[in-house]
Amino acid sequence: MVPVDAGGGLMRGDLLSDPVEGLDETLAVVDAFDGVLVAGLLRPGPAQAAAVAGLADAVAGTPLAVRVAEAAGRVTAGAAGEDDFVALAAARSALLGSVHDALALRIDEAVGRPGPEEMPAPAAGPEQGTNLLAAARSWLCDLARSGWRGIDHELVAGAAPVVSAMLPDPGLRRRATLLDGFAAELAASCPGATLERVPVRRWADLWSRALLLTVPGSAGERTADAVTGRLLPLGVDVQEHATAVQAQVHAVFEPADGGAPRLVRAGVSAPKPDTVVGAGLWQLLRPHMSLLGAVSEGRSMELDAMPVTVEGDLVWDDERARPGEPADAFATARVMLSAATAARIAPLDRHPVRIAVPVLLEGYTTRSEEGRLAFDLAGLTVAVDTDRMPAAGPLTPEAVAASGACVGLLRWDAGEFLLQPLAVEATVRKKTVAVHAGAWAGGTTDKAGVRAEKAATDAVAVLRERAGRLLRK
After folding, report:
1. 422 touches 467 (CB < 8 A)
2. pLDDT at 122
3. What is the Cβ-side half-sphere exposure of residue 28, based on CA atoms within 13 angstroms?
């Protein structure tokens, strides 16, 4: 294990392998309820009724107890209203939130990092579009009654007018985007009766989150403070879909007033055609964030009154940032990472899938375990999630396997902790060489990267020309 004074490394790795009390039982309750949504709640059978009752029993000692018990009773009788479905979604989210908190606490203990900052209660500003939220809630409740096996194009199409009416309102746009994406997934899977496999957990997650966000005031105000100081990037996490791409920079922020360092994130996203892949993705993202260039060059950024939310997300503004001195991600991790505090996650965002904690691992050996890469740290095995590493950079599984130090994101998936590498160090011909997933973010001379960028440029040029011809018609 990395000693305490080296910073950043795992200091109590045994905590990551020890079971978390009550976790399996809590997830079993959630899984049972998610299974209920497959067949729907219009006419629940005995097994479905038992799963809903189990959800109510799991929150019996909480402020939700009475309301969820009443809702479970009405659902079992086939007489559930919209408020009852909201109560069940709240109970499900509360259970997953407790799993998130238990896992996050275990990680903090393992890495010896200060606990998250306390989050103030979200401000409940005036809610706009309450009628539209009610319409969205009605559609989501119809989904719960029909179940995923009962969806058809007519039912799914009911979301379209609601989404169209919500999108022009900035205060409703995030919720409209969630509904739109959820409806698109369902539409692509219609009719539900013919599906070979239902994405049970994913659709239940989307359904419960969307339903809770239809409650007026649930979104709260994403209040932002302004910070001034030095931003020290650790690495870039790239998330790519067929029609969109997002890059999220994880970094340590060092306040100019000498305050404690803190973990922050800065994200940028852009729509994309499905023909733009690999290193070509950076062309879509670079114009929106100068930070990507600094990451590629290995530099810090000097921030001046940059807005940051209470959740630690920088609301990036290029006018408030300028390139700083060279800053090595591994030096930052070794010196500052273990002392940097993290922001607390907002209540509705508390979910195990949201766990992504920057850590530094050193002194490990690599080996293949059950067909996947793993790090061995003094007898502790940490599985490495190489599938999350983007094709838009030079970091490869081979580079990870040859490494001796790694800055990555500690995640939790399918019942275990996984490490997503953001950068690795290896010794090549007696020299230490670092490879970063975001090394091509600001441009590259690498042959493979140059070819991918050229292909992306050609693809975008063709699409723009075709779009221009359509507009001229």
Report:
1. no
2. 52
3. 7
